[in-house]
Write a structure and sequence with these properties.
single chain, 149 residues, mainly alpha, Hypothetical Protein Yqey, Chain: A, domain1, Arc Repressor Mutant, subunit A, 7 helices, 75% helix, globular
């Protein structure tokens, strides 16, 4: 069963359980995947890896929205965004902690002989290939910068 099929199945189960927030969250994911499929001209369906990228982007939006609602003193909306984030994270691979990310960064920089800030772009590409969405981009970029300085 592909990832999008699992999401559709989970949405059906949530509908039967009358869990409205889960249904709306999964519907938004399915809509985002369909939008990505229409935008991409290469193939009509996305691979599981591409679906994970869409879900990751959706999760990032939920984090940013929750922070904005907190800043705007709207705790109920922030809580709803965090609940949606919890639903989305069940479909994402487990995240690496900072020490694991740092060891991957050090290893990738050594393998590629990256030593200065002018190598930042190539270093980020090499690190991101190893991390594969298992860590937040901001954390990865900060660690790469600190190692290149």
């Amino acid at each position: 069963m592909s990832l999008i099929e699992k999401i559709r199945s989970d949405m059906t189960a949530a509908m039967k359980a009358k869990n409205k927030l889960t249904v709306s969250t999964l519907r938004s994911v399915i809509a985002a995947v369909q939008q990505a499929e229409v935008a991409g001209s290469a193939s009509s369906t996305l691979s599981d890896e591409e679906v994970l990228k869409v879900i990751s982007a959706q999760a990032k939006r939920r984090v940013e929205a929750a922070e904005a609602f907190d800043a705007g003193n709207r705790p109920e909306q922030a809580e709803a965004e965090r609940f949606e984030l919890e639903i989305l994270t069940t479909y994402l691979p487990s995240q690496l902690d900072e020490s694991e990310v740092k060891s991957i960064v050090v290893e990738a920089l050594a393998e590629g002989n990256f030593s200065s800030m002018k190598d930042m772009g190539a270093a980020m590409k090499a690190v991101n290939e190893k991390i594969a969405g298992r860590a937040e981009g901001r954390l990865v970029a900060d660690l790469v910068k600190s190692e290149l300085l």
